[in-house]
Write a structure and sequence with these properties.
Elements: E1 6-7, H1 12-15, E2 35-36, E3 41-50, E4 53-60, E5 65-72, H2 82-93, E6 106-114, E7 117-125, E8 127-130, H3 131-140, H4 147-166, E9 169-170, E10 179-182, H5 191-198, E11 203-205, E12 207-208, E13 221-223, E14 239-241, E15 248-249, H6 266-270, H7 278-292, H8 303-314, H9 322-332, H10 368-376, H11 384-391, H12 402-409
Antiparallel strand pairs: 1-12, 2-3, 3-4, 4-5, 5-7, 6-7, 8-10, 9-15, 10-14, 11-13
Length: 414
């Protein structure tokens, strides 16, 4: 909960990083015009933010190009695997840079001291909007990316996963918010063009209600991010995986990770374990998103609901998981109807029409193939459907790998 002693003049507060994160060990306070690394990088706009970092549009005054400057929270600056993972990937990608393999290209790294601690700063090539933002915008207009673009992005995502796994890294964050378009076409643009596309930074001052001065660890203002409303480069730019901070070496013991809401892997629900093959499930969910414009399973609902959706879309659970599933159903009790389907209370009381992807409500159940024929029916995208199904196998050992998926895709999308 936010500190009520602060005054928040607009809704920027509710869409940006929480002020409670500006504390020792937390975010570094940044203002437009700030410079980093002996005045090499100048801040011009805010690109995005996450639970462990803020990301800024900066100008590299030495190389005369636009870059993305990621400033990690102090607490995660030394525990994150991101820099190590990127360095490991660079060994695999050489002599080509990572951008040729659809991983965001690291240009520089340095340490920045501040009032809230010591922060790791990573300088990347300029990024565009997230794939989640672009596809959602198309869907809201009852439109979609053209088939050739979808095939091209699918191939690029699979190649990125292939590289990551070949480097021995696994369990990265493969989600719509973590897959971005590159910004190559704007990297050397004039400031006038940049702001014509990105817009001017919006901000609201942060003040105490009683007028007392802010602690130096707080920002003087909260900045809104780039809106991307005038960005029209999805047909020309390439895909990039943005954040590798969650990934770890495949030989390490599996662990419980933060799961992308609509892409929860079944092995975590039924066994509490995961490994690099969980990435394949998440990749299958993303390919589904590319094709259908929605995710295959709901987010922000109980595991019971998600498992029902998985069964209806993909078929029966593995036999070894059935006892756990029977127990889950028994515990649900009166939350199920006479057909054994989930009733409304487990959907957080949201209206049924808000669950566009929910296949367990109503009389009809659509398999993956049924949904494609009913909702998409685009012959050029048909080769992706068996790939999606093969990556969404319940048992991790039965999922196809990224190279196998690329082999099935053949020359489509090139």
């Amino acid at each position: 909960m936010e500190d009520s002693s602060f005054e928040y003049p607009s809704d920027i507060l509710y869409t940006q990083e929480p002020l409670s994160g500006y504390k020792f060990g937390g975010y570094h306070p940044v203002r437009i015009g700030d410079t980093f690394k002996d005045n090499r990088y100048t801040i011009h706009h805010k690109l995005t933010w996450g639970g462990f970092s803020t990301v800024w549009l900066a100008h590299d005054n030495l190389r005369h190009r636009w870059v993305s400057l990621k400033i990690k929270t102090a607490d995660t600056s030394y525990s994150s695997q991101e820099l190590l993972n990127l360095q490991q990937l660079e060994k695999i990608a050489a002599p080509d840079d990572l951008s040729s393999k659809y991983i965001l290209h690291l240009l520089d790294a340095f340490i920045q001291p501040g009032p809230n601690g010591i922060h790791q700063c990573l300088v990347f090539e300029l990024i565009g909007p997230t794939i989640d933002r672009i596809i959602t915008d198309y869907r809201e207009l009852s439109d979609s990316l053209d088939p050739q673009t979808i095939l091209r992005l699918s191939r690029q995502l699979l190649k990125a996963i292939e590289l990551v796994h070949n480097a021995g890294v696994g369990q990265i964050d493969i989600s719509g918010r973590n897959i971005v378009f590159s910004g190559r076409n704007l990297s050397y643009a004039s400031e006038k063009i940049i702001f014509a596309v990105f817009g001017s930074p919006e901000h609201e001052p942060v003040t105490h209600l009683d007028g007392t001065p802010l602690h130096k660890g707080f920002p003087a203002a909260l900045f809104g991010p780039v809106s991307w409303e005038d960005w029209l480069e999805e047909f020309a730019e390439e895909l990039r995986i943005f954040d590798l901070g969650e990934g770890f070496a495949q030989e390490e013991k599996s662990r419980i990770l933060a799961q992308p809401g609509p892409s929860r892997a079944p092995e975590l629900i039924f066994t509490g374990r995961s490994d690099h093959r969980t990435d394949l499930w998440h990749t299958g969910c993303m390919l589904f998103f590319f094709v259908f414009g929605t995710y295959p399973f709901d987010s922000d609902v109980e595991d019971m609901v998600v498992v029902e959706q998985m069964i209806d879309l993909l078929g029966e659970l593995p036999q070894e998981w059935q006892p756990t599933w029977d127990r889950m159903r028994a515990e649900a009790g009166d939350m199920m109807d006479f057909q054994g389907k989930i009733l409304q209370p487990l959907l957080n009381n949201a209206p049924l029409h808000q669950h566009a992807d929910l296949q367990i409500i109503g009389d009809e159940v659509f398999t993956l193939e049924d949904r494609f024929d009913k909702e998409v029916a685009e012959p050029e995208l048909a080769p992706l459907i068996p790939i999606i199904r093969a990556m969404l196998e319940f048992r991790p050992s039965e999922r196809i790998t990224a190279p196998q998926a690329l082999g099935l895709l053949g020359s489509q999308g090139q």
